[in-house]
Amino acid sequence: MSEHPEPEFPPPDDDARVVRPNFITEVIDADLEAGRHRTVVTRFPPEPNGYLHIGHAMAIMLNLGLADDYRGHANLRFDDTNPITEDPKFVAAMKADIAWLGFEWDNLHHASDYFETLYGLALRLIEQGDAYVDSLSEEEIRDYRGTVTEPGQPSPYRNRTVTENLALFEGMRKGDFGEGEHVLRARIDMAARNMIMRDPLLYRIRHTPHYRTGSEWHIYPMYDFAHPLSDAIEGVTHSLCTLEFENNREFYDWLVERLFDEPRPHQYEFARLNLEYLITSKRKLIQLVEGGYVSGWDDPRMPTLAGLRRRGVTPEALRDLVDRTGVTKTNARNDYALLEYAIRDDLNSRAPRVMAVIDPLKVTITNLPNGSAKMLDAPYWPHDVPKDGSRPLPFSGSLWIERADFSEAPPEGWRRLSPGGSVRLRHAYVITCDEVITGDDDRVVELRCRYHPDSRGELPAGLAVSGVIHWLSAPQAVPAEFRLYERLFSEPVPGAGGKPFLEDLNLESLLQKRGFVEPSVVNDPSDTRYQFERHGYFWRDARDSTREGPVFNRIVTLRDSWGKAARTSKAGPTKNAARVDEAQPQTEEKPDLVADLTAAQRPLFERYRGLGVARDEAALIAGDSELTTFFDEVLSAHDDPVAVANWVVNDLRRELKGRALSDLPFDVGAFARLIALADDGTISTRAAKEVFEAMVAGEGDPDGIVAARGLKQVSDAGALEPLIAKVLGDNPDKVAAFRGGKTGLLGFFVGQAMRETRGAANPQLVRELLERALG
Fold it and tell me: What is the 8-class DSSP label of residue 298?
């Protein structure tokens, strides 16, 4: 148990709390008042098999923050009981993330520190008659467990004697048996309503070296065994976990009650932090990383703390987000805009305002002598931010403005530059456009304008402006790359309805632009976050930037989609900030599919991984002999392992529903042909799904279905150009708005064109033709 001193506790000062009062603090207050505990001991216990994500921010803040509030002790413990998936690089990354978030731990532990102790506790359970060695296979254990409506059946090995169990368990430790030959199980109740209590597994054989203990152990404790006992060993008083573990609490209590005296740890569950348009399942995050859909665990689109940090989000913004969502007992999926609001609210007072031009259009000032320049002084901060500071802003005869700030044929109400019109340059002079220069393709390449030398203050009599635009002096502007990040997924709940979550990836989650930024940023500290006026909040990507070629990540846009109604105080969110999502139950990480493979299946898994197949998909195929045969046969007909694996795992398995593959009304050749049609662009992904459904329904071969339904993808520019012209002709107002700067309408035009062809057009070609037609 813990050797920490146990001081008397005054109640925490509400004004100095890290964690606002909630149902957990009420429990702690009651425990302290009743004398059940004198020292509050909490722990944050991640498994080092990936990076921490935004959902962990709440768990970190609760466990480490509550210990701070109550002057207790907080442990950081790595629950490293699975040597197959864990890695010291994840340990280092997690430590860095916790420190960046602004928290410290009092003690550092690993579950592997307790392997000998846990082994001894397992021996005690055997000696007490509470555990036995089972020799059923994994499939047999699953079959014997029963269902939610039918009780399980006892294993034929359940009544082994204590002497037999001790001998077998010692042999398991020594490595005398192969993986899967034996497991250690708790002896509880095979008819229990809570299926977790139907003799759960405690230890399994793994002949895999551990990153800390090497090859010393051939058996490793299951998480549900090691976790509560590690809590008890460390003297944890309040074991805080998310609601997915509510059913596990009964087993948690069963273990600690049989092996530890009071005071014992008790488990309390809270709702995890969930946001729309994000996933926090490590299994799915690993798919994104290993599948190359993102650049790594710290890709700025990822919901990992490392990704958010690289994007430019501050720890203060995340702590504010957790504070706003609150600690509750009800699962909810919060609007992504709440995160964006917390980020903007934090950056508004810390990010100086500067100018950047992301889509540059050249402007020549005709009445300023060639080569001459003026040095203006511009404020860093707007009038509503009480901070001082200014920066030099050069003005010369050659400028850059945003292409979207000019229109040759401005719509009604246009507030920017147009032929013959005048605008004010931000912090500078008024200019009037006298001449428009176009290139061979009729695209505007240069504007020739006059500036009004006496217009920097009040406007001269008779001079009117239509608006204010930002700009840069071209000779001094610094070339830069701008990475415009959006939400990684296009749907609020990725993968809803059972479809593969990867189908909901937002293909425009990253747009890269080349433009310019004002020279004042060159000498700023590298961690400075800016508001690039009209573009959003940005900061320099430390990994990819150089002094001569900075790269700026957009942290968040300026638009406040959360709205004024949601501008809540620190007292908590409005009732619209979150909604209960009963249709989407929140689950913890799914079982490790690779860990469950047999020794005979493991070489197949390694072969498929060598072909580039994602980890979980390779495990699913290798673990099912029927799928293995089918996959290999399809691969011999269509040599694209990744595509074939995706179809086999995500589509074929869903349609089997307990049937044998031989019962399906198509053969290997037809299935391979379908994948080939989708791969070479003959049909779109959506059309391929339709063809597959028709094949399952017995409507024939894929080529015949494509022909009968007219699903062949149109990739002929000549055939699509009249349709593009029709879409633009039918929507003149939206065309004018797009050319006036509302570039988000491109998605509307693509949708209209795809609707006209019933989804048959090649969407990438449609987009390219629209961009060309819209200029």
Answer: T
Which two three-digit tokens encode residue 247? 């059913």
Sequence-distant (≥ 6) Cβ neighbours of residue 400 within 8 angstroms: 357, 360, 361, 362, 363, 471, 472, 474, 477, 515, 516
Angstrom distance (rounded) from CA 574 to CA 49: 36
272 catalytically annotated? yes
- Please name the amino acid found at residue 738: F
The pLDDT of residue 745: 65
Q: Would you say 365 and 429 are in contact if contact means Cβ atoms under 8 Å apart?
A: no
Helix (H, G, I), strand (E, B) or coil at 77: strand
Q: Can you say how many angstroms the Cα of residue 630 is from the centroid of all Cα atoms in its chain?
A: 33
CB 446 within 8 A of CB 437: yes
Residues 112, 159 contacting (CB under 8 angstroms): no
Contacts of 566 (CB under 8 A, 6+ apart): 337, 338, 341, 573, 574, 576, 577
Count of other CB atoms within 10 angstroms of residue 756: 17
User: How far apart are alpha carbons 673 and 703 in whole angstroms?
Assistant: 8
Cα–Cα dist 274/54, whole Å: 8
The pLDDT tens digits of the residues spanning 99-129 come to: 999 999 999 999 999 999 999 999 999 999 9
CA distances from 223 to 78, 245, 252 (A): 11, 12, 11
Residue in 331, 211, 270 with CA at minimum distance from that of residue 585: 331
282 as an active site residue: the answer is yes
Residue 686 has pLDDT above 70, yes or no: no
Q: How confident is the model at residue 2 (pLDDT cuts 50, 70, 90)?
A: very low
The per-residue pLDDT for range 52-88, each reduced to its tens digit, is 999 999 999 999 999 999 999 999 999 999 999 999 9
Query: CA–CA separation, 548 vs 512, rounded Å?
Result: 18
**How far is it, in rounded angstroms, from Cα 636 to Cα 459?**
76
Nearest-angstrom CA–CA distance, 167 and 176: 11
Query: Which of 47, 86, 269, 276 is labelled catalytic?
Result: 47
Catalytic residue selected from 282, 391, 403, 540? 282
Write down the residue that tokens 């195929």 correspond to. 621
pLDDT tier for residue 587 given thresholds of 50, 70 and 90: very low
The Cα–Cα gap between 136 and 158 comes to 10
What secondary structure letter does DSSP report for 583? T
Task: Please confirm, yes or no, whether 89 is among the known catalytic residues.
Answer: no
Q: Which of 272, 310, 554, 615 is catalytic?
A: 272
Query: Residue 579: its pLDDT value, please?
Result: 28
User: Is the separation of the CB atoms in 665 and 696 below 8 Å?
Assistant: yes
| Three-point CA angle 47, 48, 52, nearest 5° | 85
Asked whether the predicted pLDDT for residue 637 surpasses 60, the reply is: yes
Q: Which residue has the tokens 């001081």?
A: 7
Stated as kind and residue range, the H or E segment containing 321 is helix 315-325
Residue 507: pLDDT over 60: yes
3-state secondary structure of 205: strand
| Mean pLDDT computed over 628-656 | 84
Write the single-letter amino acid at 646.
N
99 phi/psi in degrees, rounded to 5: -65, -40
Calpha distance 149→493 (Å, rounded): 30
Q: What percent of the chain has pLDDT over 70?
A: 90
Q: What is the pTM of this model?
A: 0.71
Count Cα atoms within 13 angstroms, Cβ side, for 441.
6
Q: What is the CA radius of gyration of the chain?
A: 31
Instruction: Copy the structure tokens of residue 734.
Output: 């939206």
Per-residue pLDDT tens over the stretch 386-409: 788 889 999 999 999 999 999 999
Work out the average pLDDT over 717-730: 81
Do 427 and 378 contact (CB within 8 A), yes or no?
yes
Judged on CB neighbours under 10 Å (0-12, 13-18, 19+), 38 is middle
In 3D space, the residue among 498, 412, 395, 537 whose CA is nearest the CA of residue 455 turns out to be 395
Beta carbons of 429 and 453 less than 8 angstroms apart: yes
Cα–Cα distance between 662 and 673 in angstroms, integer? 18
